[in-house]
Amino acid sequence: MAALRAGEVDWWEAPPRDLVEALSRERDITVISQYATAMALLRFNHLHPPFDNAAVRRALLGAVDQAEAMTAVAGTDRAFWHDGIGLFPAGTPFANDAGIEVLRATRDYPAVRQALAHAGYNGEKIVVLAPTDGGICPLSLVGVDQLRRAGMNVDLQEMELGTLYRRRLNQGAPDKGGWNAFFFFFDRSAPNTNPYGNYWIRADGLAGFDGWPTSPRIEALRAAWLDAA
Questions:
Q1: Residue 143 and residue 68: Cα distance in Å, rounded?
Q2: What digits encode the pLDDT tens for the residues 57-91?
Q3: Cα separation of 54 and 126, whole Å?
Q4: Roughly how many angstroms between the first and final C-alpha of the chain, as a whole number?
Q5: DSSP state of 25
Q6: What is the total count of domains within the chain?
Q7: Are 142 and 75 in contact, with CB atoms under 8 Å apart?
Q8: Is position 25 within any domain?
Q9: CATH number for position 212
């Protein structure tokens, strides 16, 4: 920050959130939101309990507080972030509000805990991977707090981002080097804005992206989208 203020460097890609407000008051410095083109997500591992159970995954929709997560990442100024987000980034052609009411309702964590118990979750430990730096760190920490408020027994395992990338590829059980969930950002590039190109909603099992969900119905719909008029 001192180098930026002194004109010794021209730009700083990712200043810590707690320094951004100070930088924004500098006459000769322009702050541009680093997350304006990114979308945050919570990714489950579908291969192992408890997230191999669709009822458990659905129950946790009631625990997700998007505004709280975005405040942790990008501050209190809503000009720098959106909530009420579904499968596609805000402002892109397929972004819509279908089904989003489950995320807009008031968070009721006792009700989520009850729903999780009804779905069969019995307090099993879940391994959540989180990086120790960058914007994914605060996203992960607030997300883990939401999971814990929902009654989940979270084993938060923090590591460097490069290590996390490698660990995500492990399809083994969580107690054998695998994992249950992680938080992440993906960009607003063209493939991610349509039903076929967005690999986060692919559901072709082990051929898919880290998390490996399987749904022949979703894959059929993705393929049909290519043939739609």
A1: 9
A2: 999 999 999 999 999 988 888 888 899 999 888 88
A3: 16
A4: 52
A5: T
A6: 1
A7: no
A8: no
A9: 3.10.105.10
35 pLDDT tier (thresholds 50, 70, 90): low
Say if 192 falls within a structural domain: yes
Q: Which two tokens stand for residue 25?
A: 């008051």
Task: Tell me the residue range of the domain where 211 lies.
Answer: 40-227
Asked if 74 contacts 80 with a C-beta cutoff of 8 angstroms, the reply is yes
- Give the tokens for residue 103: 């995320």
Asked whether the whole model's pTM tops 0.90, one would answer: no
Give the whole-angstrom CA distance, residue 47 versus residue 174: 10
- Inside any domain, residue 26: no
Joined together, the tokens standing for residue 72 give 């942790």
Q: Look at residue 31 and tell me if it is in a domain.
A: no
182: tokens are 């992680």
